[in-house]
């Protein structure tokens, strides 16, 4: 009886296992991956990447065919290596290195062996590839740039790396992915989705047809076209004006937040990062640590905002009720504060300035006095500074803004915590932070933040999140970009500030920059510029800053321009701002005298001064720097009393 029972159990167990195996093999395909079967080969069909257009429908980027030599290491049979290398224009050492890399990635999955064949190479190889088992040619698309500008905005595509493969299972070795700019930000939209066909082979590695009738095959989904808010003609003009200079230009349409231009200088031709020379060209750009062409100054360079920030302090003063537009301050060539400290100003001795004159004359004394009143309105400097901080942040400063580009900096807006860490808990006063009154000290902004600030003033207190996307094929843009945002300042407080900025062109530091037929409001700015040489803090020629919007009563453009080592606001940045406004609104340039000055001018000598190993003058010979600069006590920038005295 026991023998019969044992036999029954063995037979029953056998049938259970056989039944389960039959179910898994013939019925249940839920967890089956065709590539787990070594007799199955995946053939990918790559869709065309979406095209990129500017705001006016001009084609900026499309595609061109490209052919890669692929390898599946386990399928490679003995071959004439020398002949094959000659066809591919590589050495036998290159062959060994590439094959090892492919085999390390996966012996049975395809990877790129030689990428981006020329048309001539492809034509020769196509007829001979049958001789080389385990190798085949994969067609892809490479980017083709119709434009030669806007590289920082457009970005580029390149082969995925190990980190990409680890972070995203969609990609396989040798595939392309967006890097920088809109190519990175809108990667999934532009790339589409690749299709795949699974081919079955017999034991002799011969193709015998589709795997399971093609039930696992998928069709490619083309990438979507996108339209940018960028005006490519304005972008090209901005890059032209910034030749032989460093800095950034950001222009925004105030009524929508659409970015009209995003210039970084120096820049490069985006076509340099396409083709087999891409890696070599990228390396040269990457290791240019002096000019930094890959560094997007419009988005990530942080500068003191300088005198344009005086408009913010005027608005906060009005909102806090510590001044009105008729409040006056007597300027005696500067502002005395603290223990004998003195902030210089270019106003003549005994000048009486109200808000309007304070803005168009860019009076340091007026705004130092206003800032101090704001802070000292509160029981403690800490409370006053934090109240000021909240107002400033409502303008989008100290924040990433939420725009749709993959890089950025938040800038810096100091709070009470900042000064507690410098001076000790509650051991500081408004006078210790007085440089904030004129956009110096601890406050830092990016050009896009300053352009957005200018758009806010143009809109009298509201703004839309700056963005680069205007339209995606068959889609709508993100909801965040159409929500109107507001500052902490009441709309009626903006009018006297706007009038003061308009008078900058009528009576003030930009009166020689007027554009015929266009009413412009603007503000010049100059920011101190320091670097470190051999570990010592050395002053360089000041930065030139300018913000403007136009027309005053129906703003179509708000712009911020930073020119590094540009002396003062109206010298370079002011001229460039006016030319950009003229070009955008009128389509032509009426002030050809300003244009000639900018195009013929160069600041290369200024940029080379700290590299020469010799003493040098800065700011048109007003200051002499010895080399190396004698060691001096480092002090917080907010205590510095050598503030720029002119914005002209």
Automatic annotation (TrEMBL):
Composition bias type Polar residues, residue spans: 639-648
Biological process (GO), any one? cell wall organization
Quick one: where's region Disordered?
626-648
Q: Which UniProt keywords apply?
A: Carboxypeptidase, Cell inner membrane, Cell membrane, Cell shape, Cell wall biogenesis/degradation, Hydrolase, Membrane, Peptidoglycan synthesis, Protease, Transferase, Transmembrane, Transmembrane helix
GO MF annotations for this entry?
Answer: penicillin binding; peptidoglycan L,D-transpeptidase activity; serine-type D-Ala-D-Ala carboxypeptidase activity; transferase activity
From which domain of life does this come? Bacteria
Q: Where is the Penicillin-binding protein dimerisation domain?
A: 46-210
Stated membrane topology is: Single-pass membrane protein
* Principal subcellular localisation of the protein: membrane
What cellular-component terms does GO give this entry?
plasma membrane
Protein name in UniProt? Peptidoglycan glycosyltransferase
Using the record's annotation, list all stretches that form the Penicillin-binding protein transpeptidase domain.
247-575
Q: Which organism is it from?
A: Galbibacter marinus
Instruction: State whether keyword Transferase applies.
Output: yes
What does the UniProt entry say about where the protein is found? Cell membrane; Membrane
Where does this protein have coiled-coil stretches?
none
